[in-house]
Structure formats: structure tokens, C-alpha cells
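SEVERITY: medium
COMPONENT: batch folding queue
REPORTER: lab tech (J.R.)

DESCRIPTION
The queue accepted two submissions in a row. Attaching both inputs and their returned C-alpha cells so the on-call engineer can compare them side by side.

ATTACHMENT 1
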Amino acid sequence: MGRWHLNPSRPVALDVWFGLSFMPALDSITVVASCNRPIIDHWYYFVSVRMMAMASLVSFIILLFSNPTTKPFVSQYPGIVFISAFATYGLIGLCLDRSCAPPPKRTANLRSWSLSEYANALSRSNGTWKAAITSTAVTCGLGTVLTVVIPADWSTIIPVITTGFEAVFLRLNKFGRTSQYTVCAALFFQGGVCVQRGLRQVLVSPSLVIPPWMFLSLPVVSRLVLDLHLYTVFREYPEFSWARRNAVISTTTLVQTVAMLLVLEATQFPVMRWVKPITVLILYSTSIVGVSMPAAYNIAFEIISNT
């Protein structure tokens, strides 16, 4: 463990961001595996985006404390920094609540769906390819513009902005998340998220900078923050409680996995050194396939049925 030295810098902030965002990303994938479309949509917009925004804000605060220009101010007025961060987090949550219809407070559909049921749910909102391509150009084009305009240190916030914009745009034009749109947008939208929250960060610091024990503690902290939200902000929504119990990885399994990895690290088996590029490759590949496969299945089934 002696080879790890903690130096406040951008790589440290990126490691903290990766550690805090790992479980929200993994939880999103496991919720998608339930194939329950309403729960998938609500979990993504109301839970995952919030957790990712929190990780980005924490990372940004670390950058402020390590930047020579901002360090004197934030060191003298840390209370203002943290209050501003909480206010920003609350504003992001408010915008998400206003841009998307809230989950039902009473629902009888708390179960995993089959792939065919998920495809049938998608088929109820089929649209035209022309509208799908146009909507994809608008929603995914915003990410390209923001990539050029927003500084690299703030790039992890771009997916939060594009996700909120997508929700508002699809709701205002009453187009909806059709199968055609999902197939068109999944690669570009998820690819953009992969670049902003994955590749861009890995290129700056491919291997871990912070000690493995510190990195491994961050997913546990993230899970505790999720549970705090479920017991407070989201306590009225049974969909989220069901997903927490039946879809996402349990806290017990998470802690056991963390303990096993710590034991391997203690025996000089460096399983965590290259965890970031491996995580980016696996999580985002799985995400793209998981999002686009049911929509592609539905389109193919419809084509076959019409022939």
C-alpha cells in the first residue's frame, strides 16, 4: 500500500468521480435488466441522473480545492462552497422533477417483465424513422455543442444537461421515446456519455491515483447516499423501493465484493490499478446493448409481422 501517495489534483478528482458514479451506472444496468419500462425510465431520470450529478459536484469541489486560483477562496470560505454545491444539487433535482412526469405513488406493476412484454410496451409508442432521426439530431447534437463549449474539467456535467434536455424535448414535442428513436439515439447518446464520463477521464489518468481502499469505499458511500434518498426524497414511490430490493445489487453483496478486492490488494495482487478503463469498456458496452436491443427486437418483430 505504500506506493500510493495522495496528491490533490485533477486525477484525484477523477478517481473520486469514478468511485462515486460506479454504483449508479451499475444500478442503471441492473434495473434495465428487469425489462420493466416504467421503472427503467423513472429510475434513470429521477435516481441515476441525481446520483451522477452528486458525483460530478463532489469532483468539482475537489478541483476547486486543488486549483491554485480558487484554492485561497474555497479554503477561506468552505461553507459557501458546500452550501452552493447543495443548492446546485437541489436545483438539478428540481429541474428533473419538473421536466419529467413523477412516478405513480401507487402501482400494482412491481415485477420484472419478460423481453417480449418490454417490446410490447415499446410498440405502443412506435413512430416514424424521419421523426426519430430528426429528434436524434437535436438531442445528440446538443452534446456535441456542449463538448466544444464546456471546459474539460466540467465535462462530467454534460450528460446531466443532455439528459434533462432530452426529457423536456421529447415531452414538449409529444414524440416520446419510440423504438425508432431508441435505436437511432442509443449509440450516439450513450456514446457521448461514454466519452464525457469515461474516455475523457481515462485519458487524463488511466490508472488509479488514490489508494485502492479509498476508491473502494466510494461505491459504498454512494450506495448509502442512494438509500438516504430512498428513505427521504423518494419514500413515496414504491417503484424505487421495489427496484432497490429486487433489481440492484444488494449492499451485502457490494460490501463482500469490496472486502474481497481489498484482500487481493493486500496480498500485492493489483486488481484495482486499471479498474477505470475496464469499467468504462464493460459498463458502457453493456449499456448500449441493453438500451437498444429491446427496441431493435420490437422493430424486427413488427417488420416480420407485416410481411
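ATTACHMENT 2
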Amino acid sequence: VVATIHAQVDYAIVSEFWHSDLASVPDNQNKAKMRIELGEDPNTGEHLYDLHERRAQSGMARMLFAVFRASQFASRLREATHTRKRPNGVKLGWRQFLEAKCDCIQERKPMECDCQDCTYVTENLSLWHRAQRGWFQEG
């Protein structure tokens, strides 16, 4: 994602943060590839996209913004955007932070849990219900 603030700043480091284990984890309950739109190729005009594994966001966005600012990713962004006019580099804002979030990263719904017990129950509950119907029909 590229945003304009007086000059072109590449926010790939912020996107890298969103895909790191600090901000998101693989979504084991909804294993699916998500189609990510990349825009059009300027040379061919062809529509580009990429496939990403779905990831679950590891908390609320406001909390993750604070985690980002305290992380080595923020330091790397400041170093990468360091210029003579901007000796401290870019200080990322809230809007830019959210714009850099990839569409493959989804917040979990209240009913979704990724723990081993819940995953086991979710995977086996339909088998249990099918077996239970057979128990009551036989008796």
C-alpha cells in the first residue's frame, strides 16, 4: 500500500507487521485462501490479484496500533523514511495503519475460538449429532 504525504512512502513494513505473529495468526477455524486485489498492471492494464491464507487478527486494532509503535517494525519504518528534511522519519498515523491492513486479516467473531478444545468440538460435533440420531432410532 502506498500513501502520499509530501513524498511517496512505501508502507510495506506496516503490511509486514500485520502479517506477523504480533498482529495476526493463521485462522485455523476458517482455512481458506482469500483473493487480494492488487490493482491494474500499468503496462498491460491487466487486473492483478494475489491469494493469501486467511489470518485472524490478534486483538483490537487500537491495541495493535500501540504494539506497532513499540515494535521494531516502527523503528524500521522510521529508518526507511529518514531524510534530511525528516530526520526522525515518518510517524505512522491511525488512518495509514488501518489502510495498510491486508484484506486477508479478519477480526474473529465472538463465537469463533482457535483453542485446541474448541477446534476439536467444532470438528466432531456434527459427527456426534449424526451418531446420536442413530442411537435414538435403534432404542
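NOTES FROM REPORTER
The chain has one domain: 2-108.
No errors were logged for either attachment.
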